[in-house]
Design a protein that fits this description.
It is built from eleven helices and no strands. The termini are far apart. By secondary structure, the protein is mostly helical. It is elongated, with a radius of gyration of 25 Å.
Length: 225
């Protein structure tokens, strides 16, 4: 290969490196603009800058993270999920713990939102992803169980029995040894007219906690019907 060709290749190589550097600096500039707005609490205004940074550099983990956080702060749970998933995938191991907690918040919020919109299957898919992440983290499920019980009770009080049953079913998967989740499920099933399934749920509650007064009360009421 001639010296002239070698020089040409070297020039092309440095041009490519320079262009790549300019592109990355453009992404960084957009991210910094977005971050300045984010830190001032201007989440809506920050979003286009994070999106632009991602458009310029699709592997920019922090841009995905702060895009997700912006949507979270605006309580746009569904919109927050995908960028946080991507941030979790792209980030180094030492950053994953912080991101996964944000992702769990987004997924749970999205699940609640979807179930209130009547999108039961979509909601359940979000719940399943939450459970999967919780298991990976080997974290206590107590808080998640508490949230599911609260949501199930809220849905039941609103007359949304089908949705409440779905939530209690998920709670049973999370906490199969918790009598309270079976009692909640039994109440929802009774309200839905599913007597036999309600009895099974009450029996499960009593097997876990034979002295549970709520389960005993429900069982006596059914026997008296």
């Amino acid at each position: 290969m001639s010296i002239k060709k070698n020089v040409s290749l070297i020039i092309i190589f440095f041009l490519i490196i320079s262009c790549a550097g300019l592109i990355l600096r453009g992404a960084e500039d957009e991210f910094e603009k977005g971050l300045a707005l984010f830190n001032r609490g201007l989440y809506q205004e920050a979003i286009p800058h994070f999106e632009k940074a991602i458009e310029i550099d699709p592997e920019f983990a922090n841009a995905y993270l702060y895009l997700g956080r912006s949507h979270l702060n605006l309580k746009r749970w569904v919109e927050a999920v995908q960028p946080l998933r991507t941030a979790f995938r792209l980030s180094p191991e030492e950053s994953k713990k912080e991101i996964v907690n944000l992702l769990i918040d987004a997924l749970f919020g999205a699940a609640v939102y979807e179930i209130k919109q009547g999108n039961l299957q979509t909601s359940i898919s979000f719940f399943k992803e939450v459970f999967s992440l919780q298991n990976q983290l080997d974290k206590s499920m107590d808080k998640l169980t508490e949230n599911l019980l609260s949501l199930g009770g809220e849905l039941l009080s609103e007359g949304k029995t089908t949705e409440a049953i779905a939530v209690y079913d998920e709670a049973v998967k999370v906490a199969p040894n918790n009598a309270t989740v079976y009692i909640g499920l039994a109440r929802a099933l009774l309200k839905n007219g599913d007597m036999l399934k309600a009895v099974d749920a009450i029996k499960n509650a009593l097997e876990i906690d034979p002295s549970n007064s709520d389960a005993q009360f429900l069982f006596k009421n059914i026997l008296g019907m």
